[in-house]
Amino acid sequence: MDPLLGDIELLPYGYAPSYWMVCNGATLSISGNQALFSLIGTTFGGNGTTTFQLPNIPEDKCPAGMRYYIAVQGIYPSRN
Predict the structure, then answer these.
(1) 8-71, CATH topology level
(2) Is 31 left (phi over 0), alpha (psi -120 to 50) or beta?
């Protein structure tokens, strides 16, 4: 089952699975991630014209051996 785009999950991996990124405040280009930007915008930072940022959830706020990841590809959530 595909995740919803922008879904944030707590996972027990030391690496980001395919189509997921660590919630570490990374800066992404809007042009390469238009669908995700349309959902989260500049809520977590970025200039809003060329860049935006992912949420930043520090490792010390996660249970031991786990990290938060955000789905950067998946099903676009419906408003219905």
Answers:
(1) 3.90.1340
(2) alpha
